[in-house]
Structure formats: structure tokens, C-alpha cells
Amino acid sequence: GAVVSQHPSRVICKSGTSVKIECRSLDFQATTMFWYRQFPKQSLMLMATSNEGSKATYEQGVEKDKFLINHASLTLSTLTVTSAHPEDSSFYICSARGEVSDTQYFGPGTRLTVL
Amino acid sequence: GQNIDQPTEMTATEGAIVQINCTYQTSGFNGLFWYQQHAGEAPTFLSYNVLDGLEEKGRFSSFLSRSKGYSYLLLKELQMKDSASYLCAVNDYKLSFGAGTTVTVRA
Description:
The complex is a heterodimer.
Chain A: E1 4-7, E2 10-13, E3 19-25, E4 32-38, E5 45-51, E6 57-58, E7 67-73, E8 76-81, E9 90-97, E10 105-106, E11 110-114
Parallel strand pairs in A: 2-11
Antiparallel strand pairs in A: 1-3, 3-8, 4-5, 4-9, 5-6, 7-8, 9-10, 9-11
Chain B: E1 3-5, E2 9-13, E3 18-25, E4 31-37, E5 44-49, E6 53-57, E7 60-65, E8 70-75, E9 84-92, E10 94-97, E11 101-106
Parallel strand pairs in B: 2-11
Antiparallel strand pairs in B: 1-3, 3-8, 4-5, 4-9, 6-7, 7-8, 9-10, 9-11
């Protein structure tokens, strides 16, 4: 099956710093990548959709200047949480979808803790 | 808006069968996914239904009725490792997830 990697798997940072999370599709070309956030005991909430080479589309209520998304190639998307605060602490998960199939394949997730 | 409902929790015995229902009312619909998610991990793909009917994959089966806005995931011959959260997600180009059903398998 399709493999999506995410790095780092866990990060702890101080309030006010920026954190970059990478999402890579390892064995297929991901024309579209998605970024989700999941708080404890809650379901996944879509933050933004990104297509290779174009600007990301953000969901209502998600600040695009705070959560910077770059999808520079068909195998890599990055999410940068700028000026992180404790309320940004969450489980961030990316997914990738190729051209042919509707199926989204998820990365292993990044646990962000902001102190 | 999107409204996707599934039960919060279910408990069953090892070797038994459990059926997780999902009802949805969404503005668009291209298909319905079921994912399994173990605690602290990302979701893994189980099934995708586009047309009405039953799709069987080993111990797991998924059913869809588009006219009723209803799907279920059937887990047979339950094993301890099946203890996880099961997420129903409607595909309308992007995915909208239900809150998830936590299944606990007891010995």
C-alpha cells in the first residue's frame, strides 16, 4: 500500500517559537495533501488542503498566517506552526492522495507540545 | 454543513461480531471511508464504498446505502488487536470525519 512519512514524530518547544513538520509520500506522487489536527478524544479536523505548486486552501477558522503550508513537490508538503502557543499543542496528521484514487493515506502523525 | 454520527463506544468479546453504524447528512457525497485508529497513531485505511452494497475484505466488511445516508462496518471474529477507534469519513473531495467509535474487545 501507499506509504506516507511524517517528521518529526514528536516535538516539544517553547512558546513563541516556530515548528516545521514535514510530510512525504514515499512511493507515489501526491497531487493533493491534507493537514489535520486532532485533540485528545476528538476526531480529526481538517485544517487545510494543498495542491502541488499552488496555495493551500484553509478551512474556516484556521489562520493561514499562523499555519504556513508549502507543497513544493509531488512528494513533500510542510506545515510550519509559527509563534506556537500552548493551545497549539495537538496531534498533527498529514494525508496524501494521488491522481488516480480517492483514498487518502495518512502519515504517522506529529505530537506537538508547546510549553 | 456536515453531520456524521456514529456511536461513541462499543464493547464485545473476543471471537464475536460487532457492527458499527454511521449515518450522515452532508452537502456532497462521493463515497464513504472507514479508517481504524489505534491510540496515539494515525488512521489506517480499511475500506471505501462508492456504490450501494456490501464490500467484504477478510474479517472486515462495509456496507453503504446512499439513499438512506447510512453505512456500517462489520468486524467478524474479533481479536484483541481490533481494540481501536473506528472512524467513518464522508468524501466530498475532502474528508469529513465522524467522532469515531471506540471498540473494546474483551477476552
